[in-house]
Design goal:
about 40 residues, mainly alpha, rod-shaped
Length: about 40
């Protein structure tokens, strides 16, 4: 049962890491588009 607890903790951690990396990618994409529009407008 101990390995089960470790496994669930690891999957929870990987989910958190995945969510953070996804959020970071979305932010980068958003800022990339934002800078593109700013350059076009100027």
């Amino acid at each position: 049962m101990r390995w089960l607890r470790l496994l669930t903790r690891n999957t929870y951690l990987s989910k958190l890491i995945g969510i953070h990396s996804l959020a970071a990618c979305l932010q980068l994409e958003f800022f990339g588009y934002k800078s593109l529009f700013v350059q076009r407008g100027a």
